[in-house]
Amino acid sequence: MIRIRFERGRQTTLKIIGMHCATCTLAVQKALLSVPGVLHAEASLAGDEAKVVADPTRLRYGDLLRAVRKAGYDIYREEAHIVLKAVRPEEVSRIAELLSGWGVFDVRPNPAAGVVTVEYNPLEVTPGELARKLEEAGYEVAEVKTGEVDIDVDRRVVELDRADLRRRLAVAAGPTAALVALMVASMAGLHAAVYWLQWALATPVQFYSGWRFIKGAYRAFRNKTANMDTLVTLGTLSTYFYSVYSLLTGGLVYFEASAAVITLVLLGRYIEAGMRIKTGEAVRRLLTLQPEKARVLENGAEVEVPAAQVKPGQLVAVKQGERAPVDGVVEEGFGYVDESAFTGEPMPVEKKKGDLILAGSILVRGYLVVRATRSGRHTLLAQMVKLVRQAQGARLPVQQLVDKISGVFTWAVIAVASAVFVLWYLTTGDINRALIFTASVLVVACPCALGLATPLSVVVGVGRAAEKGVLIKRPEALQKLREARYVAFDKTGTLTLGRPRVVAVWGGDEVLNLAASLEQKSEHPLAAAVVEYARERNLKLSEPEFFDSIPGAGVYGRINGVAVAVGNEKILRGMGAELPPEVAKWAEEMREQGYTVVYVATEGKTLGAIAVGDQIREGAWEAVHWLKTRGVEPVIVTGDHEKSARAVAKKLGISVVYSGVDPEEKAKIVEALKSRGLVVFVGDGVNDAAALATADVGIAVGTGTDVAKEAGDTILLRGDITKVVEVFKISEKIMRNVKFNLFWAFVYNIALIPLAAGVFYPVTLRPELAGLAMAFSSISVTLNALRLRGA
């Protein structure tokens, strides 16, 4: 593909997903032109792509993706998982900065797993180029994986780190123990020979066991930053080299102090790494639910094959006590299935012919033959794991403040340590005492706990939420929920079941037949109800010669050479059809009973109407009531008719209703509500994609369309509206956990730095004890984050 460089900008090509008409290309083009820095944009339906010319100095590449999603479409992108050796939390901002740029939509470093996930445009950049950027900055890239990251990558990364820590700890432990013993011996007067032996013992500890700190400090120096490795390296090297100098000049040595610091910090890191493996257990539990083998029925016999190789349409047998190996539809049999892995609810669900079954669910009782629809990495279970992994690498907005503090904090500690050395030396003339206090300050103030406070809580909390049937795609939304003023609900498929039934038809079977023939091409819940009712009446449906959907209005097509439209009043206006008074009166009566009415028209004429009823979801009233007790105002924003919407609102106790609005108007209403306070939008359909993206927090109902799920910050699996409450509760628990971790990290440093600096002399904190205390702070933060597993 040819790249053209314009005088004022740079060109990029985007593959667009979801365009199907000229209107779509205009919508995508308009969305791209709204992005700051874009100079020119044009979309092509023929190539399913858009060409954009932008000012690289002003454009944030990820804004292109967000704009297209907001318009209800998507951009094709690929993922690379870059596995790094020994990445620290305080280095996350630098890694994100290095990788962000032209061709990169999103960067998600996960210090808890040691993996950096990058979403990129394969037409602009390659994984190899991304990895080289990190290597040039001094980071060690252990592995680069594209596509799906395997189940145990986080465990493998941590285990590799633990193996390195174990080797270095094994080298350090013996000499350090001997150094402490020799220190005691030196106090008994065994000076010269003991000091030389101490030097011999301390050197491998300093330059082999401590090499990972020296290497990390050098990398930070190259990147013009300072981190925990900088502090440990400064503290131990200064003590080590001063001891060498003292040994050669006849002074006191402190080899045991530098060796003990390295050993204890390594020990703390080793324990912490072991605990961090547990933070990813939720993801591993999810993926192990999917069986590796499936029994495919071929010519009446069962043939065992790898589950990932099952093709759509093949029949798979599932026996009592087994887990379903694929997603599919029950073709034969009857049984009760445990779907708690997806819904968090332990009660088995009845399954019969025509019902959906998901890979990983357990057939508690019965026998089923399932016609596969998705297998392997395409199943809902695999997609859940992918989303959870992505979310676990996300960073809360509070982390930006923490990053800024950490960036300044390390330099501040170095300044404080320098001041401590100067003050103690000037006031006492004792360089030994000044050095010990300086080393203690450097070691005790390492910002490890500060860097781990937020990411570990997110990793554990997001995993726990997934086990409860709530997929948190963008954890940054969790921090916003505490300030929610409004929760705006779509009606059909969100507050209601979205599985309506036809209750009446004006115009007889002829109207029903035309409507069902056209609606069989639509995925809307109302369309499904019309088609199902027509089939129950044994009507023979025709195949549309042409079909298109008009969001917020209805569907349009041609049947047997006649143009037909089904939808609301907007579709009638589009067809130039008058609404007869008798049909209008009938429709009004239906709406007063809470039913939705769709009209059937040809060019210039309204043929009839169909009334469809829907049931309010179980738990909807309780969810709305809970929100109101929290001071959050529930609102309905729907494309449905006002009377139908108000009938549902009355039953749920909702007073504010916006009805008869199209997708663009939904987004505008959300935007208007945002001027009065933070807005959460809950929806399930294509019509809701723009509103979900516009809201401060978007919650997509899991039984809805893929576009809506993509636009949402959070997904409620199985469409359980009570999970909205769960989202609020989980966010509170995660944020409380984060706050406690941050409070502990800050208070710990504030309390121990003065002690290490000798402010309370003669009560002091030697460097080795400072190293132990520093390790304990990181372990404490990790233990607190693990408490979320039981939330």
TrEMBL record:
Pinpoint the HMA domain residues. 10-76
SUPFAM superfamilies of this UniProt entry?
Calcium ATPase, transduction domain A, Calcium ATPase, transmembrane domain M, HAD-like, HMA, heavy metal-associated domain
Enumerate the GO terms in the molecular function aspect: ATP binding; ATP hydrolysis activity; copper ion binding; P-type divalent copper transporter activity
Provide the GO biological process annotations.
Answer: copper ion homeostasis
Annotated membrane topology: Multi-pass membrane protein
Keywords attached to this entry: ATP-binding, Membrane, Metal-binding, Nucleotide-binding, Translocase, Transmembrane, Transmembrane helix
| Superkingdom of origin organism | Archaea
Q: Which InterPro entries match?
A: ATPase_P-typ_cyto_dom_N (IPR023299), ATPase_P-typ_P_site (IPR018303), ATPase_P-typ_TM_dom_sf (IPR023298), ATPase_P-typ_transduc_dom_A_sf (IPR008250), ATPase_P-type_domA (IPR059000), HAD-like_sf (IPR036412), HAD_sf (IPR023214), Heavy-metal-associated_CS (IPR017969)
- Which PANTHER family is this protein grouped with? ATP7, ISOFORM B, P-TYPE CU(+) TRANSPORTER
Protein name per Swiss-Prot or TrEMBL: Heavy metal translocating P-type ATPase
Q: Which organism is it from?
A: Pyrobaculum islandicum (strain DSM 4184 / JCM 9189 / GEO3)
- List the taxonomic lineage: Archaea, Thermoproteota, Thermoprotei, Thermoproteales, Thermoproteaceae
